[in-house]
Fold these 2 entries.
Entry 1:
Amino acid sequence: MKDKLRIYVFGASGDLAKRKTFPALFELFSRGLLNDVELVGYARTEMSDEEFRDVLSEFLTCRYVPGESCQTYMDDFLALCTYEHGMYDADSLDKAFSKYEHVENNIFYMALPPVVYVSAVDAIHGAECFEYCQSSLKLVLEKPFGHSLASSEDLQDSLSSYFVEEQFYRIDHYLGKELVQNILVLRFANIFFEPLWNSEYIERVDIFWKETLSLHGRAGYFDKYGIIKDVIQNHLIQILALISIERIAELSTDNVSCAKLKLLDSVKKLTKNNAVVGQYIGNGQVPGYLEEPGVSEKSKTPTYARVNLEIENERWKGVPFTITAGKGLDETVTKVVVSFKRVKPIFKDMCECQSVPNKLVIQIQPEPHIYLGICNKVPGEGFKLSKKRLNFLYSEGYNEQIPDAYASLILDVIKGDKNMFVGIEELQASWRIFDDFLAESESNDGDMPVAYTFGANEKEVF
Ligand code: NDP
Ligand code: BG6
């Protein structure tokens, strides 16, 4: 058997595969991190290898190789990519893959709508051509992992009848973002945060996720999910967990996962009183949500939500954690703002900065940036104070490129490193926080979201 890696991408004709999975694989290839590999796309659409390569080539960009050698890298990468077509049953997989020689490492990446996961995994399990690698193969799943606690449990029950938990890698691509991973380093590799990281010194924590975009062709999916299931229950709750977990003894999948589970289990369930939801209306240039093709006429799906969460443990007693997320807003940004408690002023010159809290801001995107808002003495006689920033812009501090989140996570899958993947128990704990609220708001009695104009500054609207 060849000591080779083969990555099968199911749903290879789709949006995710083209826009994220293959470009991320190309990034790894151009960084010299994908060796002895074959990349096999699979979907129902009929395409030749050449047609498939033509589609992929439109989405590859050379961030890691000099412009003049870019085409050579792309050609070499595309030569590794082949395509097969068929349905998701064992016979079809055998028909497509029996001719492939056996290799040591096999990864199946499900770039498929979640309704297809079970039949695809069943087919892999039942296909004779994959019998030889059943106990070693890895399966990569994309969010959403269900649409409620019950459906995620059902999905898991089905999947776990074929393969064991160690073989599943649930991707939440925010966990692959450099600044999200850096939360653990900031907190646990620096001495000064930990003593202050509790309700005695922290007043509140805000997580902001804003996009200027509308649905860019994903209305069919989004209208069934809405902003809470799209980004809050997964991406942003993972950020909240990393910000608030207890200190871990050392970095390991079990330690990170246990700490996140413990934390998520202590988050109080969201109630109606602690949430505001909104839906954008048109602004004259961009149509409103209800006018988007694919959105149902009377849809109550929120495109915006602000939720106040409480963590019921000793460390965070009484500290509000607010997550604000919205599409169709005035800017695109994801950031965490930790506001510290105010100091007792001792300087006579009562300037603004003595009355505002120190803030630690971790800006995840677009421009990776960390800064600490401090109160500083204005140069000169006396004690005149002003607000200043201790500033760290990644673009100034590092020459290195920021790796793509998918590339980082796919590399982890190859290495078998699960620190930055979503464990089944934490997934279910995160559904538990939102489940009752979502069921109530999706019922016939649920209120209509508050309207806001596309492109609004959310502060002006709510
Ligand atoms: P698509 O809707 O584009 O589907 C991917 C491919 O799956 C399609 O090209 C189609 O290929 C195949 N497919 C669709 N429906 C079925 C079906 N009923 N049975 C069998 N095959 C089907 O999805 P995306 O690529 O957008 O997303 C894939 C996964 O990734 C989803 O789970 C999504 O939620 C998740 N995701 C996507 C993101 C994105 O930006 N697109 C971001 C984060 C997560 P064919 O017809 O050729 O078989
Ligand atoms: C996806 C959501 O998971 O994340 C999208 O389904 C959202 O609605 C996207 O736009 C945001 O990802 P990123 O990496 O562009 O911030």
Entry 2:
Amino acid sequence: MNSIKTIRRVGVLTGGGDCPGLNAVIRAVTKALILNHDVDVIGFEDGYEGLIENRYRELDWNAVSGILQQGGTILGTSNKADPFNHIIHQDDKLLRIDVSDRVLQNVAALNIDAVVCIGGDGSMTIARKLMDKGLPVVGVPKTIDNDLFGTDYTFGYDTAVSIAAEAIDRIHTTAQSHHRVMLVEIMGRYAGWLTLGAGLAGGADVILIPEIEYDLNVIQKIVEQRSKRGRRFSIIAVAEGAKSLGGELTVQRVIHDSPDKIRLGGISIKLSADIETATNLETRATILGHLQRGGTPTAFDRILATRYGVAAADLVVQGRYGRMVALQGGRIVDVSLEEVGGRTRTVGLDHELLHVARRTGVSLGASA
Ligand code: F6P
């Protein structure tokens, strides 16, 4: 006898920062569930906020048609909402309360059999905690940072790398024409994947990532050597999470009502001043910021997001909850949410891309 419960209604939400490919996942999950299993799909609005406040809309075939190539998320998102740390304002104070029981009640009242949570590390941690409380969940890994445990690629990364690489290409023109040192600051939080990928693709001379503390003397030497050899410009790709030897992270702002309070940013401004002082060469910084998360996903991300969406729909109908779909060695697999939450996948110091960079004369800002 088949003991798998028949699935009739599934909820979908997008949590954390927006990311190219979110709509492609929403579309694939919804279409696969409707077409193959005749399941109703509803979308919660603004991520976990919608689950808490019971804000949702029906997703039928028409609602998800024509959104494959659209950036952002048609459902809205929030990187502040957390049912286990819900912020309320009382007497000018911020209080955190646990409203996860309310979430379970909302889901039960809507007759929802499972929820597909599309998000990054924070969203997967919340999904795992809801699963522990009895809510059937399936995760889909999203983030331009590519820093999620258990998967080789998150969707959104490829698009962000392409945008940042194109920005480096464009910066080259000014660097070359004006004989300047140009820094391009790239997102990625505490992991260097985005900067490493974009730096290699854009032909940066120096790539600075959070995993390798940089030495100003090394950067100065590279820039001066290039100048002496007639290469009178240098391009430096610097991750927002890069730090000098023994130095601190550069924090742009602290958002007190967000579970992940720290927003990085501004290292390129400080470093460009240091390089200019050390080398006497005109040095400028460009912070790419949210440009890297905007606009249409690349074909790779559209395909990956669609594969993830279909795989997530399969996990739901098979009753395989508490899992996150993932890409390993080119194949779609699934991993336990237990393994994923609360961990950051950084660039290993023996990663092949670091060897490739060094072997092609790219400096990583540190001696040897
Ligand atoms: O995690 C994605 C990301 O874009 C990071 O690269 C960046 O540090 C952070 O989000 C920025 O967050 P916000 O949009 O809240 O400023």
